[in-house]
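This part of the workshop introduces the protein records we will be handling. A record pairs a protein's sequence with a compact description of its fold. Backbone structure tokens are a discrete shorthand for how the chain folds in space. The question running through the whole workshop is how a given chain folds. The record below serves as our worked example for the rest of this section.
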Amino acid sequence: MEKAEIRRKIKALRRMLSEEERERAASDVFDQLERSAAFLMADHILMYHSLPDELSTRRFLDKWHDRKRFYLPRVNGVNLEILPYEQSRLELGAFHIEEPVGDELVDPSEIEMIVVPAVAYDRRGNRLGRGKGFYDRLLATTGATKVGVAYEFQLVDEVPTEEHDVPMDIVITQSSYIVIR
């Protein structure tokens, strides 16, 4: 399947989810993440602030923000910057995503785990994003554990890849916990 076809199919499936299904899926996925050794050992974690069609990170961030050091990305041109997460210091940024404000940039080498959203993943950890390459550019600069989180239907047989694509180390859905490396 081509990237555009996968994106169309997943977008249609996301639209069909009820709010209850979205909440249950996010709870199931993030429950698995928080029980993982990779999460328990990491203190500095780059999360994402979810869009309405992505697995919601809000409850997870609220639950763990006083025990882990969370960071969020902020779009700067064609790249992502990393800033500390503080609920009171967010504003609507690029692509209508809440982003951190301020100038306290964090070097990617300080991050131990990155939780990454996507349109789709496959069982080899390959990721299909929204097509702008923001995460691939960031992921190429860090040795952090890369964790993809998704709805079960976002796990596809094969994601077409390109040379610059960076695979995940772990992919988690409601019923799958796949360790790639």
